[in-house]
Structure prediction request, 263 residues.
Amino acid sequence: MDDSTPAMTPDATRDADRTTREPVVVVDHVNKHFGDLHVLKDINLTVGKGDVVVVLGPSGSGKSTLCRTINRLETFESGQILIDGQPLPEEGKALAQLRADVGMVFQSFNLFAHKTILQNVTLGPIKARGQNKAAAEKRALELLERVGVAQQKDKYPAQLSGGQQQRVAIARSLAMDPKVMLFDEPTSALDPEMINEVLDVMTSLAKSGMTMIVVTHEMGFARRAADRVVFMADGEIVEQNTPEEFFTNAQSSRAKDFLSKIL
Ligand code: ADP
Ligand code: MG
Prediction:
């Protein structure tokens, strides 16, 4: 190994915000306030191509705000965010392109109630990507097949279970060929028996090489699918580590306290 190649020792992988892969998302010294509340405090996070980063932390620690800031649903005061090397656009066409590149799945499914499942998935590619209807439908059917709801294609969202709707929401995001997928507590609003069907889709997406940032309380998913766990508290990234290290050997008192309450 020549000197320019960093050694992949356990300590190197443990290093904060380090990834060995080509960066897709770079959050660089980002600060954000809501009035007097300093909700993101000097956040640094690099997510490489194919990385699966699970964000954990107590309620109110800034996890959703971080996701929304990466997608420019929120503004921020200082620092910078790069997606595939490009700074976040403020508005206009470039912002629409960014929203297509950064897929987001929320706790609530946010499907269009008056469109069929198939239309929900084809709408973005036709409107924002300029795809023709036939090509968009072909791709949508492949994606609905992949998430296991192809048979529901002509139904309306209200006719589907919560788990099915969330899988459609994932397919809808994937139809835009995003560079990264953000998930903000995608299973929190689901009945318990539907959680696994959504986590299974996310796990297979992770295995397929999708770059993912996932806020979740599902520790099984974090252990199984995450390359890295990022622990947030009070607007800060307190520590990040491999899931094995984080769950067995958390460093900070805030992480230990958090884990003692949930495990
Ligand atoms: P988490 O997702 O980790 O639970 P959030 O990012 O939702 O945390 O919230 C972080 C903090 O910012 C909380 O104290 C919350 O009350 C506050 N907050 C979130 N959104 C807003 C908003 N739109 N206006 C004012 N305060 C907000
Ligand atoms: Mg949240």
